[in-house]
Amino acid sequence: MQHLPILPVLLPALFAVLLLLQPQQASVKFRRVGSVLAMLLNLLVATALLWQQTNVPASHYLLGNWPEPFGILLVADQLSSLFVWLTTLLTLAVAVYSCAGDDEKGAYFHPLLHFLLMGLNGAFLTGDLFNLFVFFEVLLIASYGLLVHGGGKKRIHSALHYVVLNLVGSALFLLALALLYAMLGSLHMADMAQHISTLTPSETLGVKAAAGLLLIVFGLKAALLPLHFWLPAAYSQASAPVAAVFAVMTKVGVYSLLRVFGLLFGASAGALTGYGDALLWWGGLLTMLLAAAMVLAAVDLKKLAAALVLLSAGTLLAALGSGNAQVKAAALYYAVHSSWIGAIWYLLSDLIARQRGSVGDRLVPGPRLPQATLLGWLFVFSALVVIGMPPFSGFVAKLWLIQGLSTTSHGMLLIGILLLSSLAVLVAFSRAGSVLFWRAQPPIASATPTIIPSERTQVFAIVLLLLAGLQLVVFGQWWTQFCADAIAQLTAVSGGY
Amino acid sequence: MELLIAIAIGLLTGCGVLLILRGRTFAVMLGLTMLSYAVNLFIFVSGGLTAGAGAVLGASEQYADPLPQALVLTAIVIGFAMTAFLVVLAIRARAELGHDEVDLQKPNTRGGA
């Protein structure tokens, strides 16, 4: 059990390489079975890690057994294991979904998915700022490969923008790292937090500059308002399973902000305490407003799903900027819920688009869906979850956020925008649902061959994610306690290691 | 020496940013490469500039901070891989789209290139 923290990084790397070898490479069936089995094993490890965190203090895994703060380390605490678990479950569902045929539209889908999982898990688990950069690059290069999966003009073109943007982001990240190292002499995050508390006022200026750069980098990943423009373009061009797994990519930015800024600019940071909070607060609020407008203006289901991802990112960023522990705990719960529901919407819109022939996922009256009952029910349930109707996870998450915000002096603004955006989502989904399912025309005889029925694996993947969201409510007591503990642990750790 | 290095980093960054803002993928790629050179130099000097000091303890009277050297090595390798990927992607985009523009517009729809 001592080596458990490294397994979520090692296993996906190992499986990715294994999936590239014979006989997996020779037969589609082997590849699919192998990939899903490997994902199940990953989920088992992630669950064990999550379970272990409920009763022990954060474990520091020292690679090569170099003493802290000199060596590279992994930190498995409640926060990181929660994100590892939610990501692993999501990639499992995506792997299952892709087995219906999406994985054969280009080479190496499954190995790339495993590499992406490795990068994501590594980014969540690392306790070292430079390693965070390295794992960002691992997950980014896997995401570049996945983004162009399936090929095509528009996809290649949007990938080009995405790659250039992220390369500039990486350059800024490195500049911030070097500046922080020059100012603090360490890249071990908990150690940096201690150095920050002893800075003289003139030295804080360099740290502030570096933190500003980091804010841009993480804001770019999390799609904070002026840096959000890449998200709808890249996500709506990607193939459905890829877009679904990308729903968790914005959460990496949010997680990094929570971890790095929470540690570095925690209560012990002196003059720098709460640095960036105001920017996140206002940026998050504006992102939410823009996303709410995008939800209403969406012309197809994929754009709607992209607006939802943006909306959840904005909510999370604003919640982080509130600087209140209860709100942050609620945001954690919301992050888990919103990653899954975002993914569900990409998958579901793909299923619906396949059955509408040439109309695709555009929100105009089209032919009647052959599987209207099945998809209709999935649509209703997913819409109820995302709007935040009781008894689903969206309701618990939003209620908890509002409860936490009502105790703060400035929370009213976020409550208002949260409710307003939920209303916008409600309107958009009522409209989309009635256009897609009720205003359908009888099928035209010539259009039927293009309609593809939903495979069992695809429906299973969506149901799996819906059930995962449902158990967030069924075991609500346990999850809310876990999220609150995770935030308490994070704030306690910034005192020392 | 400090001034010289600072000017070099500043020049590389300036040229890099200018090239990234150009409309052709080739120029953008060159700009990103320049930017990564500037970043690498910046990381290298983040441990302080010392002349005639090795990174090994006891080999000379003074010693240089070895960590930025390790970091810059990692950054170079990663930057190299990313640039290689971008080159391949840009060539593919050129083949698929039939032009080298960063925007979707064809060259002849814009005034000048």
Work out the radius of gyration of chain A: 22 Å
- How many strand units of chain B? 0
Uncertain stretches of chain A = none
Principal-axis shape of chain B: elongated
Poorly predicted regions of chain B: none
Q: Largest chain interface and its two residue counts? A: A-B, 29 and 32 residues
User: Mind summarizing the main beta sheet of chain A?
Assistant: 2 strands, antiparallel
Indicate the mean pLDDT of chain B.
86
Strand content of chain A: under 5%
- What is the average of the pLDDT values of chain A? 89
Describe the biggest sheet of chain B? none
Structural class, judged by helices and strands of chain A? mainly alpha
Structurally, the number of domains of chain A stands at 1
Secondary-structure element string of chain B: HHH
User: Radius of gyration of chain B, Cα only, in angstroms?
Assistant: 19 Å
Q: How far is the N terminus from the C terminus of chain B?
A: 40 Å
Multimeric status of the protein = heterodimer
Report on the structure:
The complex is a heterodimer of chains A (497) and B (113). By secondary structure, chain A is an all-alpha fold. In chain A, 72% of the residues lie in helices and 2% in strands. Chain A has helices at 7-20, 28-53, 78-98, 109-125, 129-147, 153-184, 189-197, 201-222, 230-237, 240-246, 249-264, 277-297, 301-321, 325-354, 372-387, 393-406, 412-438, 456-474, 476-493, and strands at residues 59-62, 73-76. A two-stranded antiparallel sheet of chain A has the order 1-2. The longest helix of chain A has 32 residues, at 153-184. The two termini of chain A are 21 Å apart. The mean pLDDT of chain A is 89. The interface between A and B is medium-sized, with 29 and 32 residues.
